[in-house]
Amino acid sequence: MGEDQYGIQGAYVILSISFGLYLLIRPVTTYLLRRRLIELGQWNEQIHRELGRYAGNTTENLKWGLILLFTGLGLILNEFLPYSYYRSSLPYGVIAVAASLGFLLYYLIVVNRSKTV
User: Fold this and answer.
1) Which of 3, 11, 26, 83 is close enough to 88 for a disulfide, judged by CB 3.0 to 4.6 Å?
2) CA neighbor of 68 nearest in space, from 112, 114, 19, 27
3) 44-54 burial by CB neighbour count: b if 16+ within 10 A, else e?
4) Alpha-carbon distance 81 to 24, whole Å?
5) How many other C-beta atoms can be found within 10 angstroms of the C-beta atom of residue 110?
6) Residue 7 CB contacts under 8 Å (≥ 6 apart), including other chains
């Protein structure tokens, strides 16, 4: 692996760590919010439904799974494409197009699922 690839790998590591921290912190903050609302006596059915709506979004995992899958396929595809590391923006374009394809596939699945329901 060349020295020139460490920059983009560092960006992916930072992005992965940030996303992981978000996934760890979000349930804790939701719990603290619920507890505080109950302590203040502001808890009612409407708030319960609103918070449950965000927690029960089952397609959120599908979305991120497809986006990460297609981004990974874009990274794999970059290994087989001949390009100059210093003068080409081809790797960024391949990764962006692959991630976009993953999101479009997610959108089509959600639209088809909502039509059948």
Assistant:
1) 83
2) 19
3) eeeeeeeeeee
4) 36
5) 13
6) none
CA distance linking residue 31 with residue 29, whole number of Å: 5
Q: Judge whether 34 and 51 are in contact, CB under 8 Å.
A: yes
Q: How many residues does the chain have?
A: 117
Both tokens assigned to 48 = 């319960």
CA atoms within 13 A on the CB side of 93: 5
Least confident of 2-6, 25-29, 32-36, 39-43: 2-6
Q: What is the pLDDT of residue 45?
A: 79
| Distance (Å, whole) CA 19 – CA 16 | 5
pTM attached to this predicted model: 0.55
Contact 95, 8 (CB under 8 A): no
pLDDT band at 3 (very low <50, low <70, confident <90, very high): low
Give the CA-trace dihedral at 11, 17, 18, 20, to 10 degrees.
140
